[in-house]
């Protein structure tokens, strides 16, 4: 194991502990930002070690679930802290994660892959399964609350929340079963699918477990440092006069850094299937794991929860899914598809600042 891969997660965890014990100031905030980037670099390295040991698609699933679980903890902790705008925070963060992944992450991967390899391919059966589940989960969680009549203001009743939470968890669990057991071949690279470890010798069990432990330390540090930086982000958003939804976008961007970097590295190495597994799997986990936990917390602790999107965001989400179905509908990609997705990502960011 490279020395930096061992030291960076430990240093980030130590700085996280120091930031919790000391009052936040400009110097500590700057150090936290640097440590966060270092933790992201180390987390991606250790995730790739684990992924190489367990093989596809289990490796990408490990990273997606680990990050999403910690993201859920961050959202719930901020909900419990209360305050103005926290009722919309889960919605804003989930919506931002879906948009960042489906437009930003996918777009960068397709553009980088297209620039380096002209054309790339992935398994269409796996992508179609993931996209269908994502459309259904996003529709139930983020779209329908804006149109139901039993509760006003983009909210669900308790029975409706329970139905959506169970449905999201079931769809995610079925997808994981399909991805890892029933149709694992749908998520393996189109070429050399029978031997995904052909390029290098897999690490030993000891190395894989060590990397898994350091991966968890790195991810906890990433999310913890992101939470420590969140007051600074909120103050900057308020000073700029930007909408409160920008806070959810900032949180999602920080939390998704490890997955984004890992996906782009895979696309550059002509492993677009790994990139698609990471991107679509992360989007599904962002809803399938976050919504049930957030609903349980909201119901048991009587916390306000607004899930329905505004009209502008509904149009952006619909446009993203339509374009995604078209650009990913052949199983072959080039830089044109990447450019289209990145334009949508730019529109999402711009319209978040200038609604």
From TrEMBL:
Entry annotated with the keyword Electron transport: no
UniProt xrefs under InterPro entries: Alkaline_pH_Ca-Antiporter, NaCa_Exmemb
Limits of the Sodium/calcium exchanger membrane region domain: 32-180, 211-353
Membrane topology term: Multi-pass membrane protein
A GO term, aspect molecular function: sodium:proton antiporter activity
Chain ranges passing through the membrane: 27-46, 58-82, 94-115, 127-144, 156-178, 208-229, 235-257, 278-301, 307-328, 335-354
Protein name: Ca2+/H+ antiporter
Organism whose genome encodes this protein: Methylibium petroleiphilum (strain ATCC BAA-1232 / LMG 22953 / PM1)
Encoding gene per record: chaA
């Amino acid at each position: 194991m490279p020395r930096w891969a061992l030291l960076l997660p430990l240093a980030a965890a130590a700085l996280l502990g120091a930031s919790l014990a000391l009052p936040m100031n400009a110097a500590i905030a700057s150090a936290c930002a640097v440590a966060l980037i270092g933790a992201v670099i180390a987390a991606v390295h250790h995730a790739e070690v684990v992924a190489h040991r367990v093989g596809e698609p289990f490796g990408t699933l490990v990273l997606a679930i680990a990050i999403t679980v910690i993201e859920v903890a961050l959202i719930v902790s901020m909900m419990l802290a209360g305050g103005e705008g926290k009722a919309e925070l889960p919605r804003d963060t989930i919506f931002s994660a879906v948009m960042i992944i489906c437009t930003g992450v996918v777009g960068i991967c397709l553009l980088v892959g297209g620039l380096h390899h002209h054309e790339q391919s992935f398994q269409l059966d796996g992508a179609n399964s993931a996209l269908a589940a994502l459309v259904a989960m996003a529709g139930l969680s983020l779209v329908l609350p804006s149109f139901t009549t039993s509760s006003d203001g983009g909210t669900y009743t308790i029975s409706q929340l329970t139905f959506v939470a169970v449905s999201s968890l079931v769809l995610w669990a079925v997808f994981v079963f399909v991805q890892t057991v029933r149709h694992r071949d749908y998520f393996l690279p189109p070429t050399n699918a029978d031997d995904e470890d052909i390029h290098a010798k897999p690490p030993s069990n000891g190395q894989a477990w060590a990397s898994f432990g350091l991966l968890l330390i790195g991810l906890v540090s990433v999310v913890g440092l992101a939470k420590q930086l969140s007051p600074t982000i909120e103050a900057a958003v308020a000073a700029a006069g930007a909408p409160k939804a920008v806070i959810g976008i900032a949180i999602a961007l920080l939390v998704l850094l490890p997955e984004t970097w890992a996906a782009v590295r895979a696309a550059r190495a002509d492993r677009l299937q790994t990139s698609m597994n990471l991107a679509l799997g992360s989007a599904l986990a962002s809803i399938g794991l976050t919504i049930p936990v957030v609903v349980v917390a909201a119901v048991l602790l009587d916390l306000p929860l607004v899930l329905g999107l505004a009209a502008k965001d509904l149009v952006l989400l619909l446009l993203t899914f339509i374009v995604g179905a078209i650009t990913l509908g052949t199983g072959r990609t080039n830089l044109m598809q990447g450019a289209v997705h990145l334009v949508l990502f730019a529109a999402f960011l711009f319209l978040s600042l200038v609604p």
